[in-house]
Amino acid sequence: MVLNKQKLEAVLSVEGKNTDLPFFLHIFESFASTYISARYFSVKNPGSGCVVIAAEQTAGRGQWGRQWLSPEGGLYLSFGFAPQLDINLGYQLTLATAWGIAEQLRKYGVDVEIKWPNDLVLDGRKLGGILTETKVCAGKITQAVIGVGINWKNPVPPTGINLHAWSSQGNSANIPCLEKLAAVILLGIHSGIQCLEGEGVNILLSRYIKLLSNMGDKVYVNDEFTGTVVGITTTGNLHLHRSSGGTITERPASIYLEPGTISLGYRKSSV
Fold first, then answer.
1. Rounded to a whole number, what is the distance in angstroms from the first to the last CA of the chain?
2. Cα 238 from chain centre
3. Is a pLDDT exceeding 60 seen at residue 199?
4. Residues 125 and 159 sit within 8 Å (Cβ to Cβ)
5. Model confidence at 127: pLDDT above 90
6. Which of 42, 138, 148, 227 is the most exposed, having the fewest neighbouring CB atoms within 10 Å of its CB?
7. Is the pLDDT at 72 greater than 70, yes or no?
8. Under CATH, which number does the domain 5-210 receive?
9. Domain map of the chain by residue range?
């Protein structure tokens, strides 16, 4: 199920209208990791953005060093570029990408939400995930690669969902082919980064939080109640509030958890 490059470029031209998308496209039938390839092309052509897409990955990577299963039927792409952000702001790229993709999918009838920090969920199940890695020089992020995996027609685990099966159940998703899905995702990445760079992180966060599926969730760490989700910080930390129990000195009202500290759950899929 290799994407047709000319068809993808035509869809991008129509859907993006006059948007100047700052990248070159590289499409493969099978590749070890689009992530590694995007990093290579970014180093080879500094200053130019690049997008690498594969019909399947044989060595896909997920968050925290986990393997990302990437069988044929899904959308696997990586975007490499030079953001020039301060060293401590790298996680804002993940927030921007998650919001931009979710917002773009919603324009086409796919009611995607964001599960903190970087997962795209549909009906409470995982539709896709985002992985961001950066290179730093002199206190600035000089290279970033954003990897995105979206379930299209590929098999998924019980906690996952694919877009084709969801659409076939009568849901209105105006995304009939993989080329259209790729175009929507690329436009989402672009709009998210534009929001971050042009309008700032506070505007981005206000939009991200509106799509956050975890707002109001009660969070437990080591089987003990830790707090209720009330927001996200500019560095991507989960902001919890604990309204009762102990003194403020002993038990602070606000608690902040870094990405990777805990894993918030999913519902099991019936699709």
1. 22
2. 16
3. yes
4. yes
5. yes
6. 138
7. yes
8. 3.30.930.10
9. 5-210, 218-257
